[in-house]
Amino acid sequence: MDFSLTDEQKMVQQTVRDFVKRELFPLEGDVLRNEREGRPGIEPAKIRELQRKAREMGFWGINTPEEYGGANLGPLMTAVVSMELARTFVPFAFGGNADNILYYCNEEQKQRYLIPTINGERRSCFALTEPGAGSDAANIQMRAIQDGDDWILNGEKVFITNGNEADFAMVFAVTDAEKGAHGGVTCFLVDRDMGWRSTYIHTMGEWGPASLYFENVRVPSKNILGKLNGGFNLGMQWIGAGRWVIACRAVGVAERALQMAIDYSHTRVTFGKPIADRQAIQWMIADSHVEIEATRWLALYAAWLAEQKQDNRHASSIAKLHGSNMVNHVIDRVLQIHGGMGYTKELPVERWYREVRLWRIFEGTDEIQRFIISRNLLRGHVKVGEAL
Ligand SMILES: Cc1cc2nc3c(=O)[nH]c(=O)nc-3n(C[C@H](O)[C@H](O)[C@H](O)COP(=O)(O)OP(=O)(O)OC[C@H]3O[C@@H](n4cnc5c(N)ncnc54)[C@H](O)[C@@H]3O)c2cc1C
């Protein structure tokens, strides 16, 4: 068994680490100040400039096949890169990526949706959740009724990330009411100018999703993504792809924050001694590191399974459940170690505290991950002790 990265993988890791330190860390003060004053943390033009710089270093389309100009680094390197990028809270991502399910576009759709999304000219959003169907996504009610060669969409989507910014949505609607999620849901590519509206939802984080409203929105049949009535599986594929990446991001955030707490504990003196000398603080540091390391290997294992083209759904749920809870525990301890300073907006700790709370909710809540893990075990799809 070999736990080490290859020389090439280490080089990629170091390059991203350097990029984050050189280009993104210096922006952190501005991001905190801008957000405190109600502005976006970083301007879109600045993001594009950084994406251009990253592209010159080869970081463009890290999951995008070479035929579309991407670096296509694969799941393991995506894991490593995600951990590195998450060390900063500057809201930045490398360019050149598209949602995994957009690769189901036919040739004509590729020109209109996939390729412009990869190139950053168009912005997508994934619209599955509805006011009455979140965890229970199979219960979506949005209807699409056929009218000649078009479909008429009616209904509401909620909590849609990028829903207020996107110019097209991947919308999941019931096209066969009897079958519902069992072969009666279709995914449509719906341009904003076909008539849907959105409203921004304010959240406890520094960004918000949107509600999407569809009132007799007419969508041509040629905008069906994949197969008619084949949409539910696409939706599950989209959600499944992100789970282990959340665990990777949890590692990056928690490591950076823990290092801040370690540094602070050496300099903060109470009752004549640095707080680092107190067992109460040492145990918080030790427990945090143990939990971070556990998530690292769970996340890398899920990524490794994907790299081997093996089913990683069980491992992804474990990594997501552990990672999203771990990062919440760690940030809470880091805030505690910083005392009153941790609670201020001078430091990013309270920002992380608010941001990572979401990670226990989206892309499958804690309870849904537990449901999936226990169902796999109880039904015998996965056997205890057979991970290797
Ligand atoms: C900021 C944000 C961004 C999001 N982005 C997107 C997006 O881009 N696209 C999209 O489609 N959706 C998105 N979502 C929706 C997200 O996926 C759902 O919020 C999530 O799946 C939970 O659904 P819900 O909010 O309806 O909660 P519910 O499903 O109503 O759950 C409420 C509570 O009950 C628990 N629960 C539910 N069922 C069970 C059960 N069977 N057993 C035990 N406990 C249960 C849940 O775990 C939770 O604690 C986003 C949400 C947020 C907050």
Key features of this structure:
388 residues; 46% helix; binds flavin-adenine dinucleotide
Short description:
Keywords: FAD, Flavoprotein, Oxidoreductase. This protein has 388 residues and is α+β, with helices and mostly antiparallel strands.
Please provide a written account of the structure.
- Keywords: FAD, Flavoprotein, Oxidoreductase.
- A four-stranded mixed sheet has the order 1-4-5-8. A four-stranded antiparallel sheet has the order 2-3-7-6, with no helix packed on it.
- With 388 residues, it is of the alpha+beta class.
- 37% of the residues are buried.
- It contains eleven helices and ten strands.
- Helix 6 runs antiparallel to helix 7 and helix 8 runs antiparallel to helix 10 (349-355).
- It is globular and about 80 Å long.
- Flavin-adenine dinucleotide is lined by residues 126-129, 134-136, 159-161, 203, 209, 358, 361-362, 365, 367-368, 371.
Question: Which helices and strands, and how do they pair?
Answer:
Elements: H1 7-24, H2 28-36, H3 44-56, H4 74-85, H5 107-118, E1 124-127, E2 143-147, E3 150-160, E4 168-174, E5 185-191, E6 197-200, E7 210-220, E8 224-225, H6 231-267, E9 269-270, E10 273-274, H7 279-307, H8 313-337, H9 339-342, H10 349-355, H11 366-378
Parallel strand pairs: 1-4
Antiparallel strand pairs: 2-3, 3-7, 4-5, 5-8, 6-7, 9-10
Helix pairs in contact: 1-4, 4-6, 4-7, 6-7, 6-8, 7-8, 8-10, 8-11
Bound molecules: flavin-adenine dinucleotide (FAD).
Flavin-adenine dinucleotide binds at residues 126-129, 134-136, 159-161, 203, 209, 358, 361-362, 365, 367-368, 371.
Protein name: Medium-chain specific acyl-CoA dehydrogenase, mitochondrial
Domain Acyl-CoA oxidase/dehydrogenase middle: 125-205
Domain Acyl-CoA dehydrogenase/oxidase N-terminal: 6-121
